[in-house]
Every structure is written in C-alpha cells, then in structure tokens.
Amino acid sequence: MRSMSKATKPVIVIVLAVAVAAGAAVFLSRQPDQPSETTAAPLRADIKGGGHFRGPENAQLTLVEFGDYQCPSCGAYHPFVKEILNRYPKQLRLEFHHFPLISIHPNSMAASKAAEAAGEQGHYWEMHDALFEYQTQWADKPDPKPIFFAIANRIGINGTLLLQRMEGQDIQQRIVRDVEEGNKANVQAVPTFFINGQEVHIKLSMEDFVQVIEANLHK
Amino acid sequence: MKIRPIVIAVLAFIGMVDALYLSIKRNAGPIPCHVTKGCTDVLTSKYSEVVGIPLSWFGLAFYVTVFSFAIFKVFDDPLHPSGFPLKAIFYLSGAGLIISALLVGIQAFILKAFCEYCLLSAALVLSIFLLSPHPVRTHPE
To answer: For residue B109, with 0-12 CB atoms within 10 Å meaning exposed, 13-18 middle and 19 or more buried, which class applies?
Structure first.
C-alpha cells in the first residue's frame, strides 16, 4: 500500500502536466499565425489583378494564391487546387501570384520566370502545372534551366525562346510586382490563399477545400 | 536538492507543448515562422514523418517519457535513491540527440529551410542530455 501511495504522487503530476501541456498546445495553435505586431484578424487584401487567371471571368469566387514553385508545400497543395477548380468549374476561378521565397528557394525566381516566359507563348498554365509536377526534378539543381527546357519541349513550346525570354527585365518586373502585392497583403508564408479578398486557411485535404469553398459560396 | 530532475522536467514539459503544438498545426495549412524561414517546407517534407506517423508524435512520446522519469526522480525516496530514472534519461536523450542532429542536418543541407519549432526541440534534447549525468559517474545522492 505504502509503495502504491508513493507512486501515486508522481503519476498524478505526470497526468496533470500532460493535460496542461495539451491545453497549452491547443491554446497556442488557435492563436493567429501572424507575428504579434501585426493584426490578429485574418489578412485582408485588395488585390488588384496582375496575377494569372484560370476559370471563368464571372465566377462567384476568386481563389487567390500566393505561391512559390520551389516550395514543397505549394507542390503538395497544387493537386488539390486543380481538383477544386474541376469540382466548381462555374463558381470558382484561380488567380495565381508569384511569391518566390528566394532566400530559401534559390531556383524559385527562375521557375517563376519560366512560367512567365511560357505564358508569352500562350502556355502559362501548362508550365505552371509542369513546374509543380516535376518540382523534385529541378528544385535542387544548381542550374534548373535544362529541366525547364525539357519541360518546354514536353508542353510543346519553344525551349530556346523560353530560356532567352527568362532573361527579360520585363518578366522579372512582373514577378516583382506580384511579390510587392503579396508584401502589401502581409503574406508571410506560401502558399497563402485569399477568397474574395479575405485570407483563408485551408488544410491539406480535399474535404477542407470543399468545406471552405462551400462556406464562401453560401455567404 | 533535486534541481537537476526538476530542470529536466521543465525542459521536457516545454518539449511536450512544442511537439503537441506541431502535431495539431501540421495539417492545418501553412505554418508561418516567426524567427526562421521555411517552417511549412520542413513540416510538410517527406522527412517529417516515418511510416506515415509525423515525427512530432515520436517527439511527444520522447518528452512524456523523459518527463515521467524526471518526475519519478523528483519524488524519489531520499534514503533509497534510485539511479535508474536519470540513467534512462541519459540513454534516451543520447538517442534523441543523434536523431535531432540528423534532423537539423536534413534541414540545413537537404531542405535548406529551418523550422524554429524543430530547432527548439533539438535545443531541448541537447540541454536534457547535458543535464543527465553520465551513468558511470553517477553516485547515489
């Protein structure tokens, strides 16, 4: 009996500590994701176009994505974004903005340039999809251009012209404008999504995408 | 004085909160960093789970175990002290340190992105290891 009572105290302390830790973790996870000096409310952004659109112009909802082609989580979200556009072909459109985090993704700017250069040949979205699809092939390469060239050939555009146009200052300016737009909207991570100007947090699951879109369609 | 197991318990408690927080946040969308850059990259990378189980759950199991041993040491009978809890913490945190070093290496050299919550965990494991006395040199208190 005595040894049982000796063990009881530490067990109670352990159980209580685990419960307090769980409470603290839940509390912290419900805090706004932004650093404390910024607003606690979800971001609002008055994004004035400039991005690339996919879906009908008169769609009820515009899903704005600030993304980085080299970011693995953007790659992980990409199939869900495509699928949600397929599920809501009339109600939803995507507006993609470049937000290359060049300090941690050294090839992200080149990838954005490749997408823009492919856009000039009328194949922006094909390149957009392929960059995510083949992300692991080029992300860690010291020089990703040969892979971009191969992707260009695969999607049926001129690879040589693509590489030439990637050097264009005008293309870089377009990307920088997107980044400035993201900075104005206080984008801190990629991908960051907005629906009709309001930031939305979407989990990495189709169910959550559907839930968020449905909730916004019925607002 | 039982300062050492108390400090280890406090560190393990912080680790529990950290691991639980990451487990909750992992699938709740992008995780912005406040100090480092690339939290979401690290936490959604293929290295963030083992056989489908997020590493944060392993971390949680580690911290709960270390915390439990430390608390048992705190409540140890002063007349018949047991060396077992601190010995167990030493070996556990030694193994944890090797795994943490590996994970920090993956962040630095493969992912080239750092997750502050993971770095905090590595620092906690290192501190716990340094605080747990080497069993060979441990004498009954």
So the answer is: exposed
Residues B21 and A25: their CA atoms lie apart, in Å, by: 5
| Among A33, A39, A73, the residue to mutate for chain B (most B Cβ within 10 A) | A73
The pTM assigned to this predicted structure is: 0.60
Residues A95/A62, Cβ–Cβ less than 8 Å: yes
Q: How many CB atoms lie within 10 A of CB B13?
A: 22
Contact A121, A161 (CB under 8 A): yes
Q: Chain B residues within 8 A (CB-CB) of chain A?
A: 9, 13, 16-17, 20-21, 23-25, 27-34, 37-41, 44-45, 64, 67-68, 71-72, 74-75, 77, 112-113
- For residue B25, give the nearest of A29, A34, A205 by CB distance: A29
Q: For B55-84, give the DSSP string.
A: HHHHHHHHHHHHHHHHHHHHT--TTS--SH
Contact yes or no for A194/A43 (Cβ under 8 A)? yes
B105 Cβ neighbours under 8 A, 6+ residues apart = none
Question: For the segment B14-38, what is each residue's pLDDT rounded down to a tens digit?
Answer: 999 999 998 887 755 556 667 776 7
Tell me whether 0.85 is exceeded by the ipTM.
Answer: no
Q: Is the peptide bond before A191 cis (omega within 30 degrees of 0)?
A: yes
Instruction: Give Cα B83 to chain centroid, integer Å.
Output: 21
Q: How far does chain B reach from its first CA to its final CA, in angstroms?
A: 9
Q: How far, in Å, CA of A170 to CA of B13, rounded? A: 53
- Residue type, position B26, single letter: R
Per-residue pLDDT tens for A93-146? 999 999 998 877 889 999 999 999 999 999 999 999 999 999 989 998 999 999
The label of the residue with tokens 């909802």 reads A61
